TrEMBL record:
Protein name: M20/M25/M40 family metallo-hydrolase
Keyword Transcription: no
Record keywords: Hydrolase, Metal-binding, Protease, Signal, Zinc
Keyword Translocase found: no
Secretion signal, residue range per the UniProt entry: 1-20
Residue ranges occupied by any Peptidase M20 dimerisation domain in the UniProt entry: 213-359
Gene3D superfamilies (UniProt xref): 1.10.150.900, 3.30.70.360, Zn peptidases
InterPro entries: Bact_exopeptidase_dim_dom (IPR036264), Pept_M20A (IPR047177), Peptidase_M20 (IPR002933), Peptidase_M20_dimer (IPR011650)
Amino acid sequence: MRASLIAASLLALAAAPASAKSTPAAVQEVVDLSKQAIGIRSVRGDGNETGKVAELFRDTLLKGGWSADDIEIVPVDDTAYLIATWPGSDPSLGPIVISAHMDVVEAKPEDWERDPFTAVVENGMLYGRGSSDTKFDAVQAMVATILLRQQGFKPKRSIVIAYSGDEETTMITSKMIAEKLRDAKLVLNVDGNSGVLDETTGKPAYWVWQGAEKTYGDFKLEVTNPGGHSSAPTDTNAIAQLSAALARIGAYRFTPEVNDITRDYFTKAADFEGDPLLAAAMRAFAKDPEDKAAIAVLRANPATIGSIGTTCVPTMIEGGHALNALPQRATGYVNCRIFPGHSKASIIAELKDVADEPALTIEEINPEYVTEADASPYDKTFVDAATKAIRASFGNVPIIASQSSGASDSMWYRALGVPSYGASGTFMKDSDGYAHGLNERVPITNIAKSIDYYHVLLTELASK
């Protein structure tokens, strides 16, 4: 039944007149495919079904006009990635890549109000794990591309849909895809909403394109002692030493800083901040990153603390081996989000100084899962195309550059010198941001406008 519904919807897309952009059939297809994708448990570990999401997307693309030879699903460990190419007329030109991921973070049904892997639509919102991060956006971009092809567009540059299978965990497939597509002109990363809706009116307030992100780093901190009987304590105690070091790190604040992207964001986004104190702090910090009053306000806000510099927080601890013995080992883990321009080695050195514990060792864990990458350059061709696309679909909303505090597939492209830009067509309220959390959701009221956005964006970029 699902296959027949997909086929019927895609036939309707094919019948759309060449002058059309979004269609009711395309809008419904986004909802239906998103619900199907959310219903597939694409979580790392036993029972990982990411490969089934890839198969669902492959079957959809085949019905939409792609050749089987132009679609590749590559199994990797317990996951898989998908690359689907719409060949352009000039193969010498670097392709335009649409990037997203098919995997999601774990979700325990007993903690949710609704089954996280049974998508439901309520009051204009699509609920389910992966709805906002990022199966809905992956589907929306894919259906928009299918519609563009069905309506007769002939790209000069190839358009490549590249969806990874472990962005939420190891990013092995993310790295592999970037290596394969290192000749790309640029990447449109649709992972997560780029548009912000006004909290009161629900209308589009502004749209941000992401041009940089902080470097992700996990670090293992450890103290070891000879141990002994608990009745004969010594001057050294691994647990006490580690605890004191972690407390110092937890209380430490890295030097605040700005770059061109964050300065642009703070300056422009302040105009849409409902809290006058926060808005004033954003403007003040953009002018002077040493403004102590502004820094205090921004650090107190979870939405802005990650944008003003490097952050490192203790996240896990373990230690000791018996209730009646002195600990021989105590281990802690610190997660850092490093402001662009700083190496992980320099952050380790700074943590070592802050910890102020000679017996402490610090090492990075799983360094192969992350990479350091500079910001993408300001590309006028991209910015002009994105501005034209957003204005055509959502009106005269401000366009703002941004830097992400999290990690995404973009870093692998940027590390290879391929410009990658966060450029989703989804708009949502900040208060609805439940990615990775309970009752994850995304609004579905603007699908038609988002499809129109992709229509203009891809037409502009793939024609040059």
